[in-house]
Q: What sequence folds into this?
């Protein structure tokens, strides 16, 4: 809570969301001026479709980051879930299997961090490798069919609006309720603020930590379903870029990697910013390779704004 | 009424509290006092549920209670205002008051209800701030009030204050005292841990003195005065395991003028003669550590001058240039926490000692073979280890300290700054370390030693300076000084000087 000049307020625990808002506005204005398509309705629809899965993953990621952790297994889990839902079995058991995979992932990650005391990056990197392995074993090359009920949840319109908008709004509502309104949310923040003092206050730290990783995994699993539906097949590695993207979005949204400071609004802004940038670079015909350089640089800049030394990233 | 019976707490062989029984009546403010390390805080942590006793029982209103953590204790009626605050910086005031027992419907917080109740409790303790303020924006005094509000909100019966005035200004101390008197008037049981005697006599009706983890006396405050209380706090024979003091050289080894460890600190001057061991005494946190560390070059904003003489040369020191600068000029610093700040625990003995020699050499210089020299030193210091290759972490506390000192014996330092030379060291090893320190200053060198143990300073040092609030308030000759007179000077400030005689 040391950088008031960088937009990280000391009077609330919203992290650096005001700074993020400022940057989002600047980028949006810049893009509206430099391209003609940016402000169009078609582009807005594209943007929502593009960032919805990222938003799902990033909200989950933020829950873990608020406790002072990090989950780099989200990308692999997305792929695994996309593969499971397209397996040639009944849709209902497939969906149940996705849920089981997500909960199991969260449990393993949370227990590895909370009980075994493994650094979150190492713990989740290990599980990440395992899931990608399982997903590729189940489906070495992309394929399979998406259940029809899931197909209907992506790419259609409801009340004249793209259905993705409803994914977007529900995700934000769930994130907001969890973090700002629930007891669990308060405990997540408390642990991020000081694990030792949270324990003194009688908070069951391990239970909250494990819950954070489970929630994060469930968010990632829903992103997996969304992506499977959008590309209409199961691809074991479809989610991998989302690991770094979700971390970048969370950082850009002003969530502090030491834990305890950050907000749902910030995460939404972080996702919007990433969406704007990739959308804008597409409109401006910037090569995808250059885009990758820009994303990496962005993460570095965003991370350098957070107090990270105490957790070693 | 709260009653503890035969509480004992030990960590391995180290006994922190031994068979202590205390009773605090309703509407009583009960002082717990004693020297540093007497076991006051341990006793309060046991009652407050922070740690659990090895044996003994706690009764609240004649019902036996056991608490696994402070939250359980609070719900059971015992509220502790910790010396190190237990609040979390990113919580609001209301959240802090309710953390661990939030008002909620099926997991959803009833925020406005918590705000309303917090406002009432804050009114009650006389704190005029919004319940929505973040803890990080509050002053220390306000945070302390929030901790008390937490206890009031949980309707606690017992309030424990652990050195509550340590970080407060006069006005806040006055407010706190009023609040404590109000709690007392409403029939609460209050424990007041402190070594500030004037506060104790002002506030408390009953006084319990602890010494080395044991119960000394419990008496009504009216039956005691400052003198009798200090006698109870000290009351122990000094061990005679100290080496003989040698005659001092007339020549100065170190001269320090107008030292201000950090900006705004009072200025301090002192001299140490060749062959002298100078002791710094004082109650915890009175600035003696800052003085020593400033001389070691730890603080970047230190001002003042330091000069030393060794081997016929006069050396001018740079105090704000970092520890390296001071090491280069022959100053050795042995920090209090050797595990965190001094030793390389995972390296073997020989490499730890050899570091002393290499500290002054360039990064590309070849490391000399040092095994013979280290073996010689280990023999001289009587380090119990199977060889120079033993990893330091596996040594006992006393042997670790010897390795630490050995590092500086192997270097050519001539001014030694040593914090708590025998912390965590058993009696036998203590005597050896005292002898080592004497050997260290032979041949025109000198040492400044900081210790919480007054009798250690009396036995070891040639001269003792007593520090209070960053100033040297008394100079004492160990021949005539007693634990009593040092403690008196450390507590009573300037007035202590007359006690020196």
A:
């Amino acid at each position: 809570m040391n950088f008031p000049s960088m937009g990280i307020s000391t009077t609330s625990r919203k992290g650096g969301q005001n700074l993020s808002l400022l940057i989002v506005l600047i980028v949006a204005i810049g893009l509206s001026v430099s391209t003609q398509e940016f402000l169009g309705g078609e582009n807005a629809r594209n943007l929502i479709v593009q960032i919805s899965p990222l938003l799902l993953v990033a909200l989950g990621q933020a829950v873990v980051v608020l406790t002072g952790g990090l989950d780099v297994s989200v990308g692999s889990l997305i792929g695994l879930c996309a593969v499971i839902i397209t397996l040639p079995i009944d849709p209902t058991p497939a969906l149940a299997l996705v849920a089981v995979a997500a909960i199991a992932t969260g449990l393993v990650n949370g227990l590895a961090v909370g009980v075994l005391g493994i650094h979150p990056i190492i713990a989740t990197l290990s599980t990440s490798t395992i899931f990608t392995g399982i997903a590729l074993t189940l489906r070495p090359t992309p394929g399979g069919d998406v259940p029809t009920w899931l197909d209907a949840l992506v790419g259609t319109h409801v009340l004249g609006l793209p259905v993705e908008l409803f994914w977007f709004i529900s995700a934000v509502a769930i994130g907001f309720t969890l973090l700002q309104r629930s007891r669990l949310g308060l405990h997540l923040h408390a642990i991020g603020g000081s694990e030792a003092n949270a324990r003194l206050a009688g908070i069951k730290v391990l239970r909250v930590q494990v819950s954070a990783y489970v929630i994060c995994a469930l968010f990632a699993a829903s992103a997996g379903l969304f992506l499977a539906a959008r590309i209409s097949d199961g691809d074991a590695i479809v989610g991998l870029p989302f690991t770094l993207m979700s971390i970048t979005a969370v950082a850009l949204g002003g969530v502090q990697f030491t834990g305890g400071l950050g907000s749902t609004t910030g995460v939404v802004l972080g996702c919007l910013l990433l969406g704007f940038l990739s959308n804008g670079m597409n409109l401006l015909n910037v090569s995808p390779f250059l885009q990758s350089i820009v994303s990496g640089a962005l993460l570095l800049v965003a991370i350098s704004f957070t107090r990270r030394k105490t957790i070693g990233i | 009424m709260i009653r503890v019976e035969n509480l004992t707490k030990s960590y391995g062989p180290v006994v922190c509290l031994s068979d202590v029984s205390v009773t605090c009546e309703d509407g009583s403010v009960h002082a717990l006092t004693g020297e540093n390390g007497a076991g006051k805080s341990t006793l309060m942590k046991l009652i407050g549920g922070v740690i659990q006793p090895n044996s003994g029982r706690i009764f609240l209103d004649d019902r036996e209670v056991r608490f696994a953590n402070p939250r359980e204790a609070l719900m059971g009626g015992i509220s502790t205002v910790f010396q190190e605050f237990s609040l979390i910086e990113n919580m609001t005031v209301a959240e802090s008051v309710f953390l661990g027992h939030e008002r909620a419907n099926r997991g959803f917080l009833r925020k406005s209800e918590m705000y309303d109740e917090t406002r009432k409790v804050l009114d009650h303790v006389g704190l005029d701030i919004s319940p929505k303020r973040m803890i990080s924006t509050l002053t220390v005094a306000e945070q302390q009030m929030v901790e008390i509000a937490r206890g009031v909100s949980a309707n606690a019966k017992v309030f424990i204050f652990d050195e509550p005035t340590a970080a407060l200004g006069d006005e806040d101390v006055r407010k706190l005292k009023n609040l404590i008197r109000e709690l007392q008037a409403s029939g609460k049981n209050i424990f007041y841990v402190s070594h500030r005697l004037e506060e104790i006599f002002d506030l408390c009706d009953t006084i319990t003195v602890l010494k080395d983890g044991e119960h000394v006396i419990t008496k009504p405050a009216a039956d005691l005065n400052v003198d009798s209380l200090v006698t109870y706090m000290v009351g122990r024979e000094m061990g005679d395991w100290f080496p003989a003091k040698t005659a001092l050289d007339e020549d100065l080894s170190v001269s320090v003028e107008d030292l201000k460890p950090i900006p705004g600190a009072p200025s301090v001057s002192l001299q140490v003669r060749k062959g002298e061991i100078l002791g710094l005494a004082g109650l915890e946190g009175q600035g003696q550590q800052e003085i020593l560390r400033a001389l070691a070059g730890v603080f970047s904003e230190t001002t003042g001058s330091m000069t030393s003489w060794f081997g016929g040369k006069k050396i001018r020191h740079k105090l704000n240039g970092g520890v390296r600068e001071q090491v280069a000029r022959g100053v050795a610093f042995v920090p209090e926490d050797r595990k965190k700040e001094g030793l390389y625990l995972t390296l073997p003995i020989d490499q730890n000692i050899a570091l002393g020699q290499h500290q002054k050499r360039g990064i590309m210089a070849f490391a000399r073979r040092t095994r013979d020299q280290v073996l010689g030193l280990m023999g001289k210091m009587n380090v119990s280890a199977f060889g120079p290759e033993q990893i330091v972490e596996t040594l006992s506390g006393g042997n670790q300290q010897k390795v630490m000192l050995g590092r500086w014996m192997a270097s050519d330092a001539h001014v030694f700054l040593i914090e708590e030379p025998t912390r965590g060291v058993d009696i036998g090893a203590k005597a050896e370390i005292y002898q080592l320190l004497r050997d260290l200053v032979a041949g025109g060198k000198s040492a400044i030693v900081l210790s919480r143990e007054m009798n250690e300073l009396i036995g070891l040092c040639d001269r003792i300076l007593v520090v209070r609030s960053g100033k040297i308030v008394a100079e004492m000759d160990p021949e005539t000084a007693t634990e009593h007179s040092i403690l008196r000077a450390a507590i009573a400030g300037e007035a202590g000087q007359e006690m020196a005689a």
Observations:
- The beta strands of chain A are 157-158, 161-162.
- The two ends of chain A are 18 Å apart (CA to CA).
- Chain A touches chain B at residues 1, 10-13, 177, 181-184, 186, 189-190, 192-194, 197-203, 260-261 (CB under 8 Å).
- The first helix of chain A runs from residue 17 to 34.
